[in-house]
Amino acid sequence: MALSLHCTFRYPQRFALDATLSSAAHVTALCGASGSGKTTILMLIAGLLRPQAGAIRYGDEVWVDVASRRFVPPEARRVGVMFQEPRLFPHYSVRKNLNYGYVRRGGEPAQMDKAIETLEIGDLLTRPVHSLSGGQKQRVALARAIVSGPQLLLLDEPLTSVEPALQEKIAVYVKRVAKEFATPIVLVSHSVELVQQMAERTFWVKDGEIVAEPT
Ligand SMILES: Nc1ncnc2c1ncn2[C@@H]1O[C@H](COP(=O)(O)OP(=O)(O)OP(=O)(O)O)[C@@H](O)[C@H]1O
């Protein structure tokens, strides 16, 4: 499914973004230095920010078209998001965390089973999230993003909140999700190495713009 974005966005009196990208790859990466605007692009795609001008399309759906005042709200886009810091309910069990969102969005039981299996979290289901290691939390967060059957999965720096020794392992799980689920992925990373391992298509972000070459 092709994603196309051409947007300008400005935080009040600060950073301005003017980005154009189009990708039909299964795994697309946005790579660039800290503060270059990668997360801002992801938030625009998710519908968590509204651009001041431009349009965002996914397949034949128009999610945003500022000129015609069209803005599809986040929940109607059917996008799964995994944020930089896993946003899980610490006192809830893993199962309850997975059910949240899944039930609300009418997820398929088969999708839940597949997520649990792909991310190898079956033996963690009754554990409260606060008792898990960083890598386990990351796997649960990834499962939660995919269980409700999103049509697009957005991963913001999937590896940064885990220690370097674990990053390789999480990268394996991200690749496994990419392989097992048909859902296209857009991931953000400042690590060129990781991006080269995982993405079919890479866009380089610099000072709020998409540039042709890595910097
Ligand atoms: N809510 C906000 N209000 C004002 N400025 C913001 C806000 N959020 C981010 N910014 C600024 O916008 C710029 C781009 O931020 P963004 O988070 O998109 O970058 P990034 O490339 O994802 O960085 P990192 O890799 O460090 O997460 C930065 O200069 C940041 O300080």
Would you mind describing this structure in some detail?
This protein is α/β, with parallel strands linked by helices. 33% of the residues lie in helices and 27% in strands. The chain contains seven helices and eleven strands. A hairpin with a 4-residue loop joins strand 5 (61-65) and strand 6 (70-71). Helix 4 packs antiparallel against helix 5 (134-147) and helix 5 packs parallel to helix 6. The chain binds adenosine-5'-triphosphate (ATP). Adenosine-5'-triphosphate binds next to helix 1.
Features:
ATP-binding, binds adenosine-5'-triphosphate, alpha/beta, six-stranded mixed β-sheet, 7 helices, globular, Rossmann fold, 215 residues, five-stranded antiparallel β-sheet
